[in-house]
Amino acid sequence: MSRQIVVQKAAQVEEIKKLLDEYNALGVANLQKVRAAQLQEMKRKLKDVANVRVLKNTLMKRAVAEYKNKPDVGKLEPLLNGSNIFLFTNLSPFRLSLLLDKGRVKTTAKAGDVAAMDVIVPAGNTGLPPGPVISQLGSVGLPTRIEAGSVWINKDTMVAKRGDVIEARLAGVLSKMNIKPVEVGLILKAVYEEGLILTAEQLHIDLDGFKKSLIEATSNALNLSLNAGYPTSETVSLLLQIAHRKAYSLALNAGIPTKETIGDMLRKAYAEASSLNTKLPKVEEKKAETPAQKG
User: Fold this and answer.
1) Considering the domain boundaries, does residue 294 fall inside one?
2) Structural domain range at position 43
């Protein structure tokens, strides 16, 4: 190895150490199957929040082994294998993880790719003319018919489940139909921050599930507060409405006239009087019949 190469590598190691000093966190992400154009686009999107570097694992291993300004950086070493990209950032590890998840893009599948979701081919016109394509579609389980000079799919059909490896035949069919079942992006292996190494599993946040649990918790807390009669800024107006309804009902049933109940009391009295009035002729008839029955 020439002296010039040794000097260059030593300079790169020192640059890595400076980046570790400058930023609070270091993310290690998998660069596998990320194409050059997609990587450039990701770098552009992340430029304001992270310093994104493609570095040799050997240089990173040397840097974390020598770096002493922060505790336990050396514990990253087992992750420094394969094709990696490194993200130096002041974002929280969870924010970084969410940004990378949002930055993933859908793309067409190649043989050996893994489906990122359940792959469903919708019913309808494929726009493809009849020919060899019919047997190709049939070979992956798609029911077809010919109509108006093109091939139609008879019904929505699942051709792969999430996590399935996509074979070459299916990849070709999906590409013809412009269905993109693969997601490409940076997949975090882990993030180092202040002596802690958080794995991808620890960083994953199910936002939809979290929102649902927050809504359920809020609803349960509101119901508990209302049932217990405990006033808060969220419940006080509802508690007052409940109290008003109960007071009103009590006053009405007890016949206590107030400015709120007097109208309904009069209407109630009128309805009862009208009902009684309809019964009076029957009572009079019975009274008139009684002497005759006695005779």
Assistant:
1) no
2) 3-104+185-205
Strand 119-121 to 124-125 pairing: unpaired
243 close to 253: Cβ distance less than 8 angstroms: no
What the block records as the tokens of 13 is 């190691």
Structurally, the chain folds into a number of domains equal to 3
Q: In terms of domains, do 267 and 125 share one?
A: no
Asked, for residue 112, whether it belongs to a domain, the answer is: no
The reply to whether 16 and 77 lie within a common domain is: yes
Cα angle, residue 104 at apex, residues 99 and 105 outer, rounded to 5°:
145
pTM of the model: 0.57
Q: Residue type at 44?
A: R
- Helix (H, G, I), strand (E, B), or coil: what is residue 16? helix
Residue 99 within any structural domain of the chain: yes
What would the pLDDT profile of 91-147 be if each residue is shown by its tens digit? 999 989 888 887 777 888 889 988 988 999 999 999 999 999 999 999 999 999 999
For residue 111, being part of any structural domain is answered with: no
Cite the DSSP H helix spans in the chain: 3-22, 36-46, 57-66, 93-102, 132-139, 168-176, 200-203, 207-228, 236-254, 262-294
Burial of 109 (0-12, 13-18, 19+ CB in 10 A): buried
Residues 141 and 127: their CA atoms lie apart, in Å, by 18
